[in-house]
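User: Can you model how nicotinamide-adenine-dinucleotide sits in this protein?
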Amino acid sequence: MDFGLNGKIAIVTGGGNGIGAATCRRLAAEGASILVADIDLAKAQQTAASIVEAGGRAHALRADVTDEASVQAMVDAAVSELGGLHILVNNAGFTRDMRITKMSVHDWDSVVDVVLKGAFLCTRAAIPHLAEQKFGRIINISSRAHLGNPGQANYSAAKAGILGFTRAMAMENGRNWITVNAVAPGIIGTEAVTGLPHFPKIKENAEKTTPIPRIGESDDVAAAIAFLASEAAGYITGEVLHVTGGRY
Ligand SMILES: NC(=O)c1ccc[n+]([C@@H]2O[C@H](COP(=O)([O-])OP(=O)(O)OC[C@H]3O[C@@H](n4cnc5c(N)ncnc54)[C@H](O)[C@@H]3O)[C@@H](O)[C@H]2O)c1
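Assistant: Here's the modeled complex, given as structure tokens:
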């Protein structure tokens, strides 16, 4: 499918692994140049190398989305290394699951920071470039967990918060032809999930209870992101697209 991303430049945070890496590769296959940003430089380099090997254009950078200076350097690198910025995918995130009575302030802060502060800092740094050229696409990765999950108070709160942030940014930036949307994946078979000790049980349960009876793949999410990044999605903003196989 041609989503018309030729000549576009994208930053994908957490692009070294899982959904972020698949998104980098998909956007690159659609013609975009990719700044692969990850706190783990070696992983970012692996993703970038796979894109270059396939004939695409990519640059890898170590970036911590919770650090203001690091985020500014990331946006500056998109401009200096690749020539601009059109698409930002706020994907970096992780879980620290436990019941609330066992949850430390650090468990709370680290998850809320990477999801919410990360999206805030990256979006704030990107907007001036997008506004100036009167075109931009921001895609924030939420989760089905925004509806609430036991053992995920920190993660559910952050992933629900990202939806409010998405709608506020859609309203604030629409007049500069910038769209801001969220993608909410269900259970996706990335290392973060397949590495869990109870993964076989998660998979079996998902296959039984999901209308499309399988767990999701990173490529399922990347396809939704590529659509929202495209010219074709220019009249869609402030929305949340669930990629859950129909499971809520
Ligand atoms: N896998 C799922 O089932 C699932 C479901 C719903 C939502 N999500 C969301 O999708 C996103 C990607 O998840 P994944 O499963 O691919 O995870 P993953 O652990 O495979 O990849 C996440 C990447 O983010 C990077 N990262 C972590 N902290 C960072 C920071 N401070 N700055 C920059 N990079 C950082 C990690 O190094 C890693 O490469 C996350 O936001 C996650 O919450 C995942």
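A couple of observations from the model: Helices lie at 18-29, 41-53, 68-82, 105-133, 153-173, 191-194, 199-209, 218-229. The chain has a mean pLDDT of 97.
User: Helpful, thanks.
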